[in-house]
Design a protein that fits this description.
With about 475 residues, this protein is an all-alpha fold. Among the domains are: about 90 residues, no CATH class; about 100 residues, no CATH class. It contains 23 helices and 2 strands. A hairpin with a 2-residue loop joins strand 1 and strand 2.
């Protein structure tokens, strides 16, 4: 049972969805089998651990058909039918959330049934909703589908006159296509910059040139046009214009769409900063703070601890310690409860390390609960740097030995992450042993080893050890 598709699907239901699913299965419109109603009630008793070993097909069969011998084939049928009901349930729930889709389906039904008054009333309501909607790809799709519905209704009426709905449908389809094409192309370029991928970007240059010739463009299409041009390499002027457009139109864009735009701009800045363009640091900080202020960069109602930490790192890079501490303390309240304390103390430790207040660093590191592997790894590197700066070399060597052992033993750490920190430990140990004959070899290793944490700091240590000789 635990490895079945049914168990895996039901294990994703929260308590509210379970109540709805019970009602759904009990509805004779969807199901007339009493056995499936009993099976649903039995499985609900194990929620959310439907995939645990305690839930067996034999026990479930007894609950469904008490007093009868176990029939594996019949139990398989019941599980299959209940899984199909589960599929129907999740699809209907999604449909209920898709008001535009419902509008168009009902309008088409009214049109086919020749219920003109019903059609006109609902069409005006749908038109009002589409005009009030904040811009995103889905609102453009709704605009197109509504125009297409109007055109179909006109055809059904068999009226021989000009149909403005047909023109609206064609125009809306163009707008939807151009925006979606830009978005796909932006994501292809973005992924190519991160992973080894070779996408074929067909027709995108023609789309860009067509849009650039237009006297006016939809704001969202204009934004993605400049995202694409920035990512494609013609960057400086287009990125400057992109920032202007984000400031001008961000409040008129749906939060999820706005989040994507922020992240494209942030990733562009991050690549420039890695190239040594420090002038992009205040720009990306401004983007982060705008996305935090309007909560576009929130996830599930909370500020991501990754975003929180990135902002702190940028502020520390500018040595704006007062602002960084204010941000750390003020915005920790916006973090999810399970990661709040660790994020607060880890970032305060980073801040005090930069301020060379090493006692404060140790104090905050001691308060970490390691809710995420990131904090376990990060705290060890901050602690290592603190020991080094405090000239606690024996403590540092002991830490490196225990950290290396932890990395080798722990099977939950991804191979790439494990290698990143093992390389850090190995190179730092070599630096501390300070073998003059291997000095240049160690330098080359620091410069070229991949992957490696704290490369710049290790180079600083290498230079300091050389001056101390």
């Amino acid at each position: 049972m635990k490895s079945s598709k049914l168990a895996q699907l039901l294990s994703t239901f929260d308590p509210g969805q379970w109540r709805q699913f019970e009602d759904f299965v009990a509805s004779p419109f969807f199901n007339k089998s009493e056995e499936l109603i009993r099976l649903t009630a039995y499985l609900k008793g194990f929620a959310p651990d439907i995939t645990s070993s305690e839930v067996t097909a034999e026990q479930a069969c007894k609950a469904v058909a008490p007093g009868k011998p176990y029939d594996a084939r019949q139990m398989g049928y019941w599980m299959n039918y209940l899984h199909k009901l589960g599929e129907q349930f999740v699809s209907i729930r999604r449909y209920q959330l898709n008001t535009p889709r419902q509008y168009c389906d009902v309008l088409n039904e009214f049109s086919e049934r020749k219920l003109d008054k019903h059609y006109l009333f609902l069409y005006r309501k749908a038109e009002g909703d589409v005009e009030r909607a904040l811009a995103d790809t889905e609102s453009l799709r709704f605009r197109y589908e509504l125009a297409e519905t109007a055109s179909k209704h006109f055809i059904r009426q068999r009226v021989r006159s000009f149909d403005s709905g047909l023109q609206h449908a064609a125009d809306a389809l163009d707008q939807l296509y151009f925006l979606q094409k830009l978005k796909y192309s932006c994501e292809m370029l973005n992924r190519q910059a991160i992973i080894s991928a070779d996408y074929s970007l067909s027709f995108i240059e023609e789309v860009c040139q067509f849009l650039e010739r237009q006297p006016e463009r939809l704001p969202l299409a204009d934004i993605y046009l400049h995202v694409y041009r920035s990512l494609a390499g013609d960057s400086e002027a287009h990125f400057s214009r992109l920032i202007e457009l984000i400031l001008q139109y961000s409040e008129k864009i749906q939060p999820l769409e706005r989040r994507e735009v922020y992240l494209y701009a942030i990733n562009f800045c991050a690549r420039k900063i890695r190239q040594g363009r420090e002038e992009y640091v205040p720009i990306v900080l401004g983007l982060y703070m705008q996305g935090i202020t309007d909560e576009s960069l929130f996830e599930g109602g909370y500020l991501s601890h990754w975003t929180y930490t990135n902002v702190v790192k940028l502020a520390l890079r500018q040595k704006d310690y007062k602002w960084a501490e204010q941000f750390i303390r003020e915005y920790s309240r916006k973090l999810a409860p399970h990661s709040r304390e660790d994020a607060l103390h880890f970032n305060l430790a980073e801040l005090f390390y930069q301020k060379e207040q090493y006692g404060e660093v140790l104090s905050h590191l001691s308060q970490l609960n390691f809710t995420d592997m990131f904090y376990h790894m990060g705290s060890r590197t901050v602690l290592a740097k603190t020991y080094y700066e405090s000239d606690e070399i024996e403590s540092l060597l002991s830490l490196m030995a225990s950290f290396s052992g932890f990395l080798r033993r722990n099977k939950k750490i991804s191979p790439a992450l494990k290698k990143t920190y093992l390389n850090f430990c190995n190179l730092l140990i070599q630096l501390l042993h300070d073998n003059p004959r291997k000095r240049e070899k160690v330098k080359a290793q620091i410069q070229h080893t991949q992957p490696l944490a704290e490369r710049a700091w290790l180079m600083k240590v290498w230079e300091e050890r050389g001056r101390a000789r």
